[in-house]
Amino acid sequence: MPEQYNSIKTIYHADDDEDDRLLFTDAVDELGLSAIVHQAEDGQKLLDMLFHNSAQLPEIIFLDINMPGRNGFECLAELRKGEGALRKVKVVMLSTSSTPENIARSFELGADLYAVKPSTYQGLKELLSEILETDWKWEPKSRNHNKVYSSLTWLL
């Protein structure tokens, strides 16, 4: 049976920087998207929220890499190792790092997209708009076609 999603998008976002969390929710609100954003300040709290609220699947999870508790890589590995429906949820690594090592590791662990945090609020809004308006069901299933989002351009 296919997973069912509401017309209102459910988004989970984990970032240890309070300002980044506030900017994220402000940007989603300003975009006027029908979305509910659940946030956590570290990876372990995100996993706890997801596993204790498994009745409502998120459409997408945004993970920062460097967080206390469990970092983004550890969260991603935990999500991808299970057999449940959370294994199939789209995961975007959202980090200030643009190092090839972090990008490669993210895709090796099962990320669907790697996005470098924009340096401006307008850039964040544009990034989120493009990601959240993507029709994910048409995205390739193969992990060989992962995308890196940087400077408002999709790169293969």
Secondary structure layout plus pairing:
Elements: E1 9-14, H1 18-31, E2 35-40, H2 43-52, E3 60-63, H3 72-81, E4 90-95, H4 100-109, E5 113-116, H5 121-132, E6 147-150, E7 153-155
Parallel strand pairs: 1-2, 1-3, 3-4, 4-5, 5-6
Antiparallel strand pairs: 6-7
Helix pairs in contact: 1-5, 2-3
Any descriptors?
156 residues, alpha/beta, Rossmann fold, seven-stranded mixed β-sheet, 5 helices, 7 strands, disordered N terminus
Could you describe the 3D structure shown?
The chain is an alpha/beta fold. The protein has one domain: 3-Layer(aba) Sandwich (Rossmann fold). The chain contains five helices and seven strands, in the order βαβαβαβαβαββ. It has helices at residues 18-31, 43-52, 72-81, 100-109, 121-132; strands spanning 9-14, 35-40, 60-63, 90-95, 113-116, 147-150, 153-155. It has a seven-stranded mixed β-sheet, with helices on both faces. The longest helix has 14 residues, at 18-31.
Q: Kindly report the spatial arrangement of strands forming the biggest sheet.
A: 2-1-3-4-5-6-7
- Name the overall outline: globular
Determine Rg (CA atoms, Å). 14 Å
CATH class: Alpha Beta
Task: Characterize the quaternary organization of these chains.
Answer: single chain
Instruction: Count the beta strands.
Output: 7
Mean pLDDT rating: 83
Question: Strand-and-helix sequence, N→C?
Answer: EHEHEHEHEHEE
The CATH homologous superfamily name equals Response regulator
Total discrete domains: 1
Specify the biggest β-sheet: 7 strands, mixed
Total number of helical segments? 5
What is the helical fraction, as a range of percent?
Answer: 25-40%
CATH architectural group: 3-Layer(aba) Sandwich
- Measured distance between first and last alpha carbons: 32 Å
Strand content: 15-25%
